[in-house]
Design brief:
Blueprint: E1 6-10, H1 18-28, E2 41-45, H2 47-57, H3 62-74, H4 86-99, H5 117-126, H6 130-137, E3 143-150, E4 156-162, E5 169-171, E6 174-178, H7 183-189, E7 199-201, E8 204-207, H8 218-222, E9 227-231, H9 249-280, H10 284-287, E10 296-300, H11 306-312, H12 319-327, H13 337-342, H14 346-362, H15 364-372
Parallel strand pairs: 1-2, 1-9, 2-3, 4-6, 9-10
Antiparallel strand pairs: 3-4, 3-8, 5-6, 7-8
Helix pairs in contact: 1-3, 1-14, 2-3, 5-7
Protein backbone atom coordinates (compact mmCIF):
# COMPACT_ATOMS: atom_id res chain seq x y z
CA UNK A 1 0.00 0.00 0.00
CA UNK A 2 3.02 2.29 0.06
CA UNK A 3 3.26 4.79 -2.76
CA UNK A 4 6.76 5.31 -4.15
CA UNK A 5 8.22 8.82 -3.89
CA UNK A 6 5.29 10.18 -1.91
CA UNK A 7 6.15 13.04 0.45
CA UNK A 8 4.34 14.40 3.47
CA UNK A 9 4.82 18.09 4.27
CA UNK A 10 3.79 19.49 7.65
CA UNK A 11 3.85 23.27 7.91
CA UNK A 12 4.40 25.45 10.97
CA UNK A 13 1.94 27.06 13.32
CA UNK A 14 2.84 26.60 16.98
CA UNK A 15 0.05 24.99 19.00
CA UNK A 16 -2.07 24.81 15.85
CA UNK A 17 0.06 21.81 14.80
CA UNK A 18 -2.24 19.60 16.91
CA UNK A 19 -4.61 19.81 13.93
CA UNK A 20 -2.08 17.92 11.80
CA UNK A 21 -2.08 14.99 14.20
CA UNK A 22 -5.87 14.74 13.98
CA UNK A 23 -5.58 14.47 10.20
CA UNK A 24 -2.83 11.87 10.50
CA UNK A 25 -4.94 9.83 12.89
CA UNK A 26 -7.67 9.50 10.27
CA UNK A 27 -5.12 8.58 7.58
CA UNK A 28 -3.45 6.01 9.85
CA UNK A 29 -6.75 4.15 10.18
CA UNK A 30 -6.49 3.31 6.47
CA UNK A 31 -3.52 1.04 7.20
CA UNK A 32 -2.95 -2.13 9.26
CA UNK A 33 -1.63 -1.69 12.81
CA UNK A 34 1.93 -2.76 11.99
CA UNK A 35 2.20 -0.98 8.62
CA UNK A 36 5.07 1.40 7.99
CA UNK A 37 4.45 5.02 7.05
CA UNK A 38 2.90 5.49 3.58
CA UNK A 39 5.23 8.45 3.03
CA UNK A 40 8.84 7.70 2.16
CA UNK A 41 9.86 11.39 2.26
CA UNK A 42 9.04 13.42 5.37
CA UNK A 43 9.45 17.20 5.43
CA UNK A 44 8.51 19.60 8.20
CA UNK A 45 8.91 23.16 9.36
CA UNK A 46 8.49 24.75 12.78
CA UNK A 47 6.02 22.79 14.94
CA UNK A 48 5.31 20.67 11.87
CA UNK A 49 8.99 19.73 11.96
CA UNK A 50 8.56 18.26 15.43
CA UNK A 51 5.52 16.25 14.33
CA UNK A 52 7.27 15.00 11.20
CA UNK A 53 10.35 13.92 13.16
CA UNK A 54 8.18 11.86 15.52
CA UNK A 55 6.76 10.11 12.44
CA UNK A 56 10.31 9.42 11.23
CA UNK A 57 11.22 7.96 14.63
CA UNK A 58 8.29 5.53 14.35
CA UNK A 59 8.33 5.16 10.56
CA UNK A 60 8.31 1.36 10.82
CA UNK A 61 4.89 1.51 12.51
CA UNK A 62 2.81 4.43 11.25
CA UNK A 63 -0.12 3.98 13.60
CA UNK A 64 2.15 3.79 16.65
CA UNK A 65 3.86 7.04 15.72
CA UNK A 66 0.53 8.80 15.25
CA UNK A 67 -0.76 7.31 18.51
CA UNK A 68 2.21 8.68 20.44
CA UNK A 69 1.77 12.11 18.86
CA UNK A 70 -1.92 12.03 19.65
CA UNK A 71 -1.19 11.20 23.30
CA UNK A 72 1.33 14.04 23.57
CA UNK A 73 -0.94 16.69 22.06
CA UNK A 74 -3.99 15.41 23.95
CA UNK A 75 -2.20 15.92 27.27
CA UNK A 76 -0.21 19.06 26.52
CA UNK A 77 0.41 21.93 28.91
CA UNK A 78 2.06 25.22 28.06
CA UNK A 79 4.86 24.76 30.60
CA UNK A 80 6.09 21.77 28.57
CA UNK A 81 7.02 24.17 25.76
CA UNK A 82 8.10 27.38 27.50
CA UNK A 83 8.51 28.73 31.02
CA UNK A 84 5.27 30.00 32.52
CA UNK A 85 6.37 30.49 36.13
CA UNK A 86 5.71 34.13 37.01
CA UNK A 87 9.09 34.62 38.70
CA UNK A 88 11.07 33.04 35.86
CA UNK A 89 9.13 34.99 33.26
CA UNK A 90 9.84 38.23 35.16
CA UNK A 91 13.53 37.36 35.29
CA UNK A 92 13.47 36.78 31.56
CA UNK A 93 12.00 40.25 30.97
CA UNK A 94 14.61 41.85 33.22
CA UNK A 95 17.43 39.96 31.50
CA UNK A 96 16.22 41.29 28.14
CA UNK A 97 16.20 44.80 29.54
CA UNK A 98 19.65 44.65 31.13
CA UNK A 99 21.26 43.06 28.07
CA UNK A 100 20.38 46.14 26.05
CA UNK A 101 22.74 48.16 28.25
CA UNK A 102 25.67 45.76 27.92
CA UNK A 103 28.67 46.46 25.71
CA UNK A 104 28.66 44.87 22.27
CA UNK A 105 31.58 42.58 23.14
CA UNK A 106 29.80 41.13 26.18
CA UNK A 107 28.02 37.79 25.89
CA UNK A 108 24.30 38.31 25.34
CA UNK A 109 21.75 35.51 25.15
CA UNK A 110 19.44 35.76 22.15
CA UNK A 111 16.50 38.08 22.74
CA UNK A 112 13.15 36.40 23.23
CA UNK A 113 9.98 37.06 25.16
CA UNK A 114 9.77 33.43 26.23
CA UNK A 115 12.19 30.75 27.42
CA UNK A 116 11.70 27.47 25.52
CA UNK A 117 14.15 25.38 27.58
CA UNK A 118 11.28 23.04 28.64
CA UNK A 119 10.84 22.10 24.98
CA UNK A 120 14.52 21.08 24.76
CA UNK A 121 14.05 18.84 27.80
CA UNK A 122 10.86 17.36 26.32
CA UNK A 123 12.54 16.55 22.99
CA UNK A 124 15.66 15.02 24.53
CA UNK A 125 13.56 12.94 26.91
CA UNK A 126 11.02 11.50 24.46
CA UNK A 127 12.45 11.71 20.93
CA UNK A 128 14.59 8.65 20.10
CA UNK A 129 16.55 10.22 17.25
CA UNK A 130 18.76 7.15 16.73
CA UNK A 131 15.73 5.27 15.41
CA UNK A 132 15.58 7.57 12.37
CA UNK A 133 18.75 6.12 10.89
CA UNK A 134 17.57 2.56 11.57
CA UNK A 135 14.28 3.26 9.79
CA UNK A 136 16.14 4.73 6.82
CA UNK A 137 18.44 1.70 6.61
CA UNK A 138 15.42 -0.61 6.85
CA UNK A 139 13.72 1.22 3.98
CA UNK A 140 10.76 2.48 6.01
CA UNK A 141 11.58 6.00 4.78
CA UNK A 142 14.10 7.47 2.35
CA UNK A 143 14.63 10.88 3.89
CA UNK A 144 13.68 13.33 6.61
CA UNK A 145 14.09 17.09 6.12
CA UNK A 146 13.78 19.86 8.70
CA UNK A 147 13.93 23.47 7.48
CA UNK A 148 15.31 26.38 9.53
CA UNK A 149 16.23 29.98 8.72
CA UNK A 150 19.86 31.06 8.92
CA UNK A 151 20.00 34.47 10.59
CA UNK A 152 23.57 34.99 9.32
CA UNK A 153 22.91 34.58 5.61
CA UNK A 154 19.14 34.93 5.35
CA UNK A 155 19.00 31.56 3.60
CA UNK A 156 16.46 28.80 4.09
CA UNK A 157 18.42 25.71 5.16
CA UNK A 158 16.87 22.27 4.87
CA UNK A 159 18.75 19.86 7.10
CA UNK A 160 18.10 16.39 5.73
CA UNK A 161 18.95 12.86 6.81
CA UNK A 162 18.76 10.24 4.11
CA UNK A 163 20.09 6.94 2.78
CA UNK A 164 22.89 8.79 0.99
CA UNK A 165 21.42 8.65 -2.51
CA UNK A 166 20.04 12.20 -2.37
CA UNK A 167 22.68 14.86 -3.05
CA UNK A 168 22.76 18.22 -1.30
CA UNK A 169 21.34 21.12 -3.31
CA UNK A 170 21.73 24.87 -3.56
CA UNK A 171 19.41 27.37 -5.17
CA UNK A 172 18.77 31.08 -4.71
CA UNK A 173 18.32 31.72 -0.95
CA UNK A 174 17.87 28.04 -0.11
CA UNK A 175 19.94 24.90 0.16
CA UNK A 176 19.89 21.36 1.48
CA UNK A 177 22.50 20.21 3.99
CA UNK A 178 22.99 16.52 4.77
CA UNK A 179 23.26 15.86 8.51
CA UNK A 180 22.02 13.73 11.40
CA UNK A 181 18.85 15.28 12.82
CA UNK A 182 18.80 15.99 16.56
CA UNK A 183 16.94 18.16 19.08
CA UNK A 184 18.84 21.32 18.11
CA UNK A 185 17.42 21.19 14.58
CA UNK A 186 13.91 20.97 16.00
CA UNK A 187 14.53 23.86 18.39
CA UNK A 188 15.91 25.89 15.49
CA UNK A 189 13.01 25.25 13.12
CA UNK A 190 10.44 26.10 15.82
CA UNK A 191 12.12 29.25 17.18
CA UNK A 192 9.40 31.78 16.28
CA UNK A 193 11.10 35.19 15.96
CA UNK A 194 11.04 37.35 19.10
CA UNK A 195 8.98 34.75 20.99
CA UNK A 196 11.73 32.10 21.24
CA UNK A 197 15.54 32.54 21.20
CA UNK A 198 17.65 31.71 18.14
CA UNK A 199 19.32 28.29 18.21
CA UNK A 200 22.99 27.75 17.39
CA UNK A 201 23.97 24.96 15.00
CA UNK A 202 27.64 24.94 14.15
CA UNK A 203 28.79 28.55 13.86
CA UNK A 204 25.45 29.99 12.77
CA UNK A 205 22.23 30.93 14.54
CA UNK A 206 18.88 29.76 13.25
CA UNK A 207 15.24 30.66 13.72
CA UNK A 208 11.85 29.42 12.61
CA UNK A 209 12.06 27.69 9.26
CA UNK A 210 9.06 29.53 7.85
CA UNK A 211 10.78 32.94 7.89
CA UNK A 212 12.89 32.66 4.72
CA UNK A 213 11.15 29.64 3.22
CA UNK A 214 10.30 31.01 -0.21
CA UNK A 215 9.69 27.52 -1.61
CA UNK A 216 8.20 25.16 1.01
CA UNK A 217 7.79 22.36 -1.56
CA UNK A 218 11.46 22.50 -2.55
CA UNK A 219 12.92 20.02 0.01
CA UNK A 220 10.40 17.31 -0.91
CA UNK A 221 11.01 17.80 -4.64
CA UNK A 222 14.80 17.78 -4.28
CA UNK A 223 14.55 14.56 -2.26
CA UNK A 224 12.71 12.88 -5.13
CA UNK A 225 9.00 13.28 -4.41
CA UNK A 226 6.60 12.65 -7.28
CA UNK A 227 3.51 13.14 -5.09
CA UNK A 228 3.10 15.51 -2.16
CA UNK A 229 0.48 15.54 0.57
CA UNK A 230 0.44 18.83 2.50
CA UNK A 231 -1.32 19.36 5.82
CA UNK A 232 -1.60 23.14 5.98
CA UNK A 233 -2.50 25.20 9.04
CA UNK A 234 -4.01 28.08 7.11
CA UNK A 235 -7.34 28.92 8.70
CA UNK A 236 -10.28 30.10 6.58
CA UNK A 237 -10.11 33.82 5.92
CA UNK A 238 -13.37 35.51 6.79
CA UNK A 239 -13.74 39.17 6.06
CA UNK A 240 -14.94 40.94 9.19
CA UNK A 241 -18.01 43.18 9.00
CA UNK A 242 -16.76 45.38 11.83
CA UNK A 243 -15.87 49.01 11.03
CA UNK A 244 -12.33 49.61 9.90
CA UNK A 245 -9.90 50.78 12.58
CA UNK A 246 -6.19 51.24 13.07
CA UNK A 247 -4.81 47.72 13.71
CA UNK A 248 -3.29 47.21 17.14
CA UNK A 249 -0.09 45.32 17.90
CA UNK A 250 -1.87 41.99 18.38
CA UNK A 251 -3.58 42.25 14.98
CA UNK A 252 -0.35 43.26 13.26
CA UNK A 253 1.56 40.39 14.88
CA UNK A 254 -1.20 38.04 13.79
CA UNK A 255 -0.93 39.19 10.18
CA UNK A 256 2.85 38.75 10.30
CA UNK A 257 2.61 35.22 11.68
CA UNK A 258 -0.03 34.20 9.14
CA UNK A 259 2.13 35.61 6.35
CA UNK A 260 5.21 33.75 7.57
CA UNK A 261 3.45 30.42 7.98
CA UNK A 262 1.01 30.22 5.07
CA UNK A 263 1.46 32.71 2.22
CA UNK A 264 4.63 31.23 0.68
CA UNK A 265 3.08 27.76 0.60
CA UNK A 266 0.12 29.01 -1.42
CA UNK A 267 2.44 30.77 -3.87
CA UNK A 268 4.62 27.68 -4.25
CA UNK A 269 1.63 25.43 -4.87
CA UNK A 270 0.33 27.85 -7.49
CA UNK A 271 3.74 27.87 -9.19
CA UNK A 272 3.96 24.08 -9.17
CA UNK A 273 0.48 23.69 -10.62
CA UNK A 274 1.32 26.20 -13.35
CA UNK A 275 4.44 24.18 -14.25
CA UNK A 276 2.35 21.00 -14.29
CA UNK A 277 -0.11 22.63 -16.69
CA UNK A 278 2.71 23.78 -18.95
CA UNK A 279 4.26 20.31 -19.04
CA UNK A 280 0.98 18.75 -20.17
CA UNK A 281 1.18 20.92 -23.31
CA UNK A 282 4.64 19.64 -24.21
CA UNK A 283 5.52 16.40 -25.93
CA UNK A 284 7.57 13.85 -23.94
CA UNK A 285 10.80 14.58 -25.84
CA UNK A 286 10.35 18.30 -25.14
CA UNK A 287 9.98 17.75 -21.39
CA UNK A 288 13.21 15.80 -20.94
CA UNK A 289 15.74 18.60 -21.67
CA UNK A 290 13.92 20.84 -19.20
CA UNK A 291 14.50 18.31 -16.38
CA UNK A 292 11.01 18.99 -15.03
CA UNK A 293 8.44 16.44 -13.91
CA UNK A 294 4.75 16.65 -13.20
CA UNK A 295 4.19 16.44 -9.44
CA UNK A 296 0.80 15.64 -7.97
CA UNK A 297 -0.31 17.37 -4.79
CA UNK A 298 -3.12 17.18 -2.29
CA UNK A 299 -3.63 19.88 0.35
CA UNK A 300 -5.66 19.51 3.53
CA UNK A 301 -6.71 22.72 5.29
CA UNK A 302 -8.79 23.33 8.42
CA UNK A 303 -12.47 23.97 7.89
CA UNK A 304 -12.78 26.21 10.97
CA UNK A 305 -10.75 29.14 12.28
CA UNK A 306 -8.25 28.66 15.09
CA UNK A 307 -8.71 32.10 16.61
CA UNK A 308 -12.24 31.42 17.76
CA UNK A 309 -11.25 28.09 19.30
CA UNK A 310 -8.31 29.67 21.10
CA UNK A 311 -10.51 32.45 22.46
CA UNK A 312 -12.93 29.84 23.77
CA UNK A 313 -10.15 28.35 25.90
CA UNK A 314 -8.35 31.59 26.73
CA UNK A 315 -8.84 31.07 30.47
CA UNK A 316 -6.86 27.81 30.27
CA UNK A 317 -3.66 29.78 29.74
CA UNK A 318 -1.35 30.30 32.74
CA UNK A 319 -1.77 33.68 34.42
CA UNK A 320 1.75 34.78 33.46
CA UNK A 321 1.03 34.18 29.77
CA UNK A 322 -2.30 36.01 29.97
CA UNK A 323 -0.54 38.99 31.54
CA UNK A 324 2.08 38.95 28.78
CA UNK A 325 -0.63 38.83 26.12
CA UNK A 326 -2.57 41.57 27.91
CA UNK A 327 0.50 43.81 27.67
CA UNK A 328 0.23 43.35 23.90
CA UNK A 329 -3.44 44.27 23.90
CA UNK A 330 -4.69 40.68 23.77
CA UNK A 331 -7.48 39.60 26.09
CA UNK A 332 -10.44 37.25 26.10
CA UNK A 333 -12.74 38.20 23.23
CA UNK A 334 -9.88 39.50 21.07
CA UNK A 335 -9.79 36.28 19.02
CA UNK A 336 -6.07 36.84 18.61
CA UNK A 337 -3.96 34.92 16.13
CA UNK A 338 -1.02 35.10 18.53
CA UNK A 339 -2.98 33.33 21.28
CA UNK A 340 -3.83 30.49 18.88
CA UNK A 341 -0.10 29.92 18.29
CA UNK A 342 0.90 29.97 21.97
CA UNK A 343 -1.96 28.04 23.60
CA UNK A 344 -0.34 24.67 24.27
CA UNK A 345 -3.19 23.62 26.56
CA UNK A 346 -5.01 20.32 26.30
CA UNK A 347 -8.55 21.73 26.15
CA UNK A 348 -7.57 23.66 23.03
CA UNK A 349 -5.32 21.03 21.44
CA UNK A 350 -7.97 18.33 21.89
CA UNK A 351 -10.44 20.40 19.88
CA UNK A 352 -7.82 20.83 17.17
CA UNK A 353 -7.18 17.09 17.13
CA UNK A 354 -10.90 16.45 16.67
CA UNK A 355 -11.18 19.12 13.98
CA UNK A 356 -8.30 17.62 12.02
CA UNK A 357 -9.70 14.12 12.38
CA UNK A 358 -13.16 15.20 11.20
CA UNK A 359 -11.80 17.23 8.26
CA UNK A 360 -9.80 14.21 7.10
CA UNK A 361 -12.77 11.88 7.55
CA UNK A 362 -14.88 14.17 5.36
CA UNK A 363 -12.44 13.74 2.48
CA UNK A 364 -11.03 10.32 3.31
CA UNK A 365 -11.99 8.75 -0.03
CA UNK A 366 -10.12 11.45 -1.93
CA UNK A 367 -7.10 11.12 0.37
CA UNK A 368 -7.10 7.34 -0.07
CA UNK A 369 -7.33 7.65 -3.86
CA UNK A 370 -4.39 10.08 -3.84
CA UNK A 371 -2.20 7.87 -1.66
CA UNK A 372 -2.96 4.59 -3.42
CA UNK A 373 -3.14 5.81 -7.00
Amino acid sequence: MKTKSCALILTGGGARAAYQVGVLKAIAELYPRNHHTPFNILCGTSAGGINITALAVYASCFRLGVKKLDFMWRNFHTDQVYQTDMLKLSRKMLANLFSSFQADYAYKPGFSLLDNSPLRELLNRHMEFERIDRNILAGAINALAITASDYSTGDSISFFQSDGTQPAWQRARRKGVSTVINAEHLLATSAIPLLFPPCQIGQDYFGDGSIHQLSPLSPAIHLGAKKILVISLEQPRIRANAPRHIPNISEISGHLLDTIFTDTLNSDLERMNRINSTLTLLAQHQQHPMQLNTIESYVIKPSQGFNQLADKHYDSLPLSVKLLLRSLGIKKGSQSTLASYLMFEQNYTRELLQLGYQDAQNQLNSIQDFLLD
